[in-house]
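Dear Dr. L.,

I hope this message finds you well. Following up on our conversation about the binding site, I have prepared a predicted three-dimensional model of the protein together with coenzyme A. For your records, I am including the exact sequence and ligand specification that went into the calculation, followed by the structure tokens. Please feel free to forward this to your student if that is useful.
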Amino acid sequence: MHLQFRTATPDDASQLQALVKSAYRGETSRQGWTTEADLVADDRIDVKGITAKITAPDGVVLMATDDDGALVACCEVVKRSADLAYFGLFAVDPRRQGGGLGRQVLNYTEDYCRRIWSVTKLEMNVIWTRDELISWYIRRGFRKTGKSKPFPYEELVNGAALRDDLYFDVLEKDLNTRTAASADAA
Ligand SMILES: CC(C)(COP(=O)(O)OP(=O)(O)OC[C@H]1O[C@@H](n2cnc3c(N)ncnc32)[C@H](O)[C@@H]1OP(=O)(O)O)[C@@H](O)C(=O)NCCC(=O)NCCS
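The resulting structure of the complex is given below.
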């Protein structure tokens, strides 16, 4: 599928919140191949939280739509310093996962960060238990930094965590290194 990309505006916050919730948490997320449904039972983020990301001066929420204009995927990127951007809020509609859309979105986002911000590194956080997802990022050229970050137990939205041993592994990718996988998909 050929995706169209654009930056989100506050009017998009509601549909973005629905997409993120459906991909990360709850029963709908089990239609995808990787989910946090067994780890956390909350909404992941609310409309207010998405709006704050959309309007943040140092970041953007990117939306990917299909030929009919329907939202199929999203992510956020935040410029953290002259050479580093943060990547997060990455979601593909669970009914459309496993067909290469995630790879397309990541490739577009890496290109966006290089083109618009000239950053050389992309950093992200993944819950440490998600081996299948960490392997996916490693196949895309990320590496484990050995650093970790606390899981935001106090900031969950309309729900609670299902485990008390969660934290994030910090992954990083050098955007100057073109991996075989990203070259294939470009
Ligand atoms: C992570 C996510 C964005 C990827 O999107 P996607 O469209 O499924 O990604 P792609 O189709 O490009 O890639 C699918 C990959 O899953 C692999 N895969 C498919 N089924 C799998 C399974 N049961 N177990 C492990 N890997 C599997 C495929 O082999 C493919 O990897 P490859 O391209 O290296 O061969 C999407 O799964 C998602 O929204 N997940 C829920 C939210 C989330 O966890 N976000 C990331 C938080 S850090």
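In brief: The chain has one domain: 4-185.

With kind regards,
A. P.
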